[in-house]
């Protein structure tokens, strides 16, 4: 036999598998298909492949670990976002009247959980519905953040109330020492115009008329806020705040 005939014979043998090898390959493919639930792609594997793809159904422990990881990640994100929210000082359910904001549901069973957490963390007790309403400003009427190093004029009128107070604090509600030894004004001792309106000057140094003292050392404060607290007022007993008027806040100058 020639060399060419030998090569042709070898090629023919390499292209033909014995019946026993083909039978084993088909059996392995069928076994894998049944293990994977009878997937058609495994049944259609070429029978002359000796090494069937090695695999199997997902292990229960691996699936359980994935579920635990997802639950842990979700819990961490939820707890972290909630902690970040309650670190703030401003509740969600607020009503705005110019630069003034109020939370009419504070102290009631309608208060949202985040607002309750904010008040609890800061150890503040909100006025209950029917007792009063607090309105706080962090910006002036032009939208600029209040600064303890500036002088402001607070002018206009407030909703009808038996008594109200105006307090100056930082943006977290903390009080600071002032030249006059006080940080608030009360309506009974207020000088008013003939139409009932008023002008209040908020500054570090004394001012004629109605003076609201600000902190002696504004550089140690974190921002500034003004808070009106209206006591025994119709707006705190269910009447709508819509249409109510609150004073304007105008910046006169800064040092």
Automatic annotation (TrEMBL):
Gene3D superfamilies: Domain of unknown function DUF1214, C-terminal domain (2.60.120.600)
Transmembrane segments: 64-86
Domain DUF1214 positions: 132-233
Protein name: DUF1214 domain-containing protein
Source taxon at top rank: Bacteria
InterPro entries, alphabetized: DUF1214, DUF1214_C_sf
Region of interest (Disordered), ranges: 1-22
